[in-house]
Every structure is written in structure tokens, then in C-alpha cells.
Amino acid sequence: MRGKVYTLSVPSVKYYKEADFFGLASGRDTDKFKATGLTPEMGEHIDAPYVGEFPMILECKVVHHHELGLHTHFVGEIVDVKVDDEVLDDSGRPDVAKVQPFVFSPDAREYHLIGSRLGTAFKDGRGIMEKKEG
Ligand SMILES: Cc1cc2nc3c(=O)[nH]c(=O)nc-3n(C[C@H](O)[C@H](O)[C@H](O)COP(=O)(O)O)c2cc1C
Q1: Residue 54 CB-density burial (10 A; 0-12 exposed, 13-18 middle, 19+ buried)
Q2: CA proximity to 32, closest of 23, 44, 41
Q3: What residues line ligand 1, using a CB cutoff of 6 Å?
Q4: Which residue's CA is the nearest one to ligand 1's atom 29?
Q5: What is the pLDDT of the chain when averaged over all its residues?
Q6: CATH assignment of 5-133?
Q7: How far is the CA of 75 from the centre of ligand 1 (A)?
Q8: For residue 112, what pLDDT is reported?
Q9: Can you list the residues of the chain whose pLDDT is less than 50?
Q10: Where are the domains of the chain?
Q11: Which of 18, 24, 29 to mutate to test the pocket of ligand 1 (most atoms within 8 A of CB)?
Q12: What is the CA(121)–ligand 1 centre distance, in A?
């Protein structure tokens, strides 16, 4: 992190091994871009690189940080979002099914795919709310 700014580069499943490598190696002694063949692109609004091949990028400025003991918790302001055109839905929003991000399960030390569409947020639980009030 340079000058209290950072980028979040969201990898799609096809880059999960590169993402794992990014977490295994240290930038102190390894050029992670060179090792993976991925492309460093400089942020438009901040002085920090992001991964050119990844479909979704957030450019962020640190607004707070909290020392938690073992870890430091950073709170960032998102100053720009970049999403590849091919992963947008018909209304221009990022489509999770096209971005194809994945999740990390820390205890199992596994990466998992995100499944298919389950339902509609802020709507599918309303039936329970109405039963409670009625
Ligand atoms: C799957 C995975 C999860 C990780 N989670 C964290 C984490 O939550 N916090 C952390 O400080 N390091 C975590 N690490 C370790 C860092 O990614 C590792 O120290 C990092 O590669 C150091 O790179 P740097 O020296 O270039 O910053 C994780 C590594 C992997 C492979």
C-alpha cells in the first residue's frame, strides 16, 4: 500500500491459482506480476496498481485503520469501480454469474465456487414479516 491507498482486484475462477499464489508469496522478495504473467495497471484515481486481467476492480483510499491485535482492520472509501463490459448484465450492473468470483473457506483451507441464483434480496423474506405482523 502506497500513500494510504489500495486497490481490490476481484479474480474470476479461472485465476484462482494466481490469486492463491498472491497470498503465498511476498512482494518484498517476489515480483508477483512477473511470476504470474498478469498485468499491472495503474489506478486512474490513486497511485496503486491493480490486476488488468481481473474483471472487477475497486480503487480505495484508507479512511480509518484499527489495530485489532494480530491484524489491522482497514476501512476504505471506494473512489472508483471498474467492471469489464462482458460481465455486466442487461441493466449495466455487475452480474455475479459472469464475474465468477469465488470464496475462501479459512477453516477448511479451500476455495469454493459461488452457486447459481437463489432468490431476490429484500423481497423473499417479506412473507415471514407479513405473517408476524398479521
Ligand atoms: C488463502 C489465503 C488467505 C490469507 N488471508 C490473510 C489474511 O486474512 N490476513 C493476512 O494478513 N494475511 C493473509 N494471508 C497471507 C498474505 O496473503 C501473505 O502474507 C501475503 O502474500 C504477503 O504479501 P505481501 O508481503 O506482498 O503483502 C492469506 C494467504 C492466503 C494464501
Answers
A1: buried
A2: 23
A3: 20, 23-28, 71, 104
A4: 23
A5: 95
A6: 2.30.110.10
A7: 17
A8: 98
A9: 1
A10: 5-133
A11: 24
A12: 31
